[in-house]
Amino acid sequence: MVVRESFDSSLQELQEKMMEMGELTGTLIEKSFIALQNQDIKLALRVIEDDDEIDDMQNEIDQLAIWLIVKEQPVARDLRKIIGAIKILTDVERVADFGVNIAKSTIQIGNAHSLIHLTDLESMKNRCISMLEKSLQAFFEENISLAKEVGDMDDQIDDLSDANYKKLSAYLSEHPEETNQLVQLILVNRHLERTADHITNIAESAAYLIKGKKYDLNP
Q1: Contact by Cβ (8 Å): 36, 105
Q2: Scanning 16, 153, 188, 195, which has the fewest C-beta atoms within 10 Å of its C-beta?
Q3: Can you give the residue ranges of every domain in the chain?
Q4: CATH top-level class of 2-211
Q5: Is 8 a residue whose pLDDT tops 90?
Q6: Is 147:201 a contact under the CB 8 Å cutoff?
Q7: In whole angstroms, what is the distance from residue 43 CA to residue 53 CA?
Q8: How many CA atoms lie within 13 A of 165 on its CB side?
Q9: pLDDT, tens digit, for every residue of 134-155?
Q10: Would you say the C-alpha torsion 161, 167, 172, 177 has a positive or negative sign?
Q11: 143: left (phi > 0), else alpha (psi -120 to 50), else beta?
């Protein structure tokens, strides 16, 4: 019983650190988008620096997960949970990287007259942050309904991404002088779409933990 309590305590620590990393990543995405909206180069540079903290946290949690596997030699569901956590960490870190990419696009756009109003990028960003929260909650609470909800939201992101691309491409054909900014906004659109894909991977890891088999939320 004492051994099990020790394992459960370590597993809880792992989940708390994952939750903290998820919150930091959501904040980074939010800040990167604020920098884009306000054309705030200083904030964009801080976002790039903040990613180092998330990278360090991923390494720390990875080490804890590996230590748990070696020390406790978990089997079945417990092992699936730890392996799932390691996989999820990789996806969360990739989400943070896309936030950095958005910040880099902000720097490339500079002080040019903003054309972000042509898009629904903010709606995409809001959905991505909500998806991140729901996907991690699905894993921690083993909630398959939340995991499926994330898959449905990814479809919404795809629709918004397609619409944004069409609007920006059409505007570019009429205003080639705005090529630099429009290309950067197209890249931001792509970064948010890929962000949603990685978050869907997190939800699929949650579904695998719950169901014990591969679960495709976005066939």
Answers
A1: yes
A2: 16
A3: 2-211
A4: mainly alpha
A5: no
A6: no
A7: 16
A8: 12
A9: 999 999 999 999 999 999 999 9
A10: negative
A11: beta
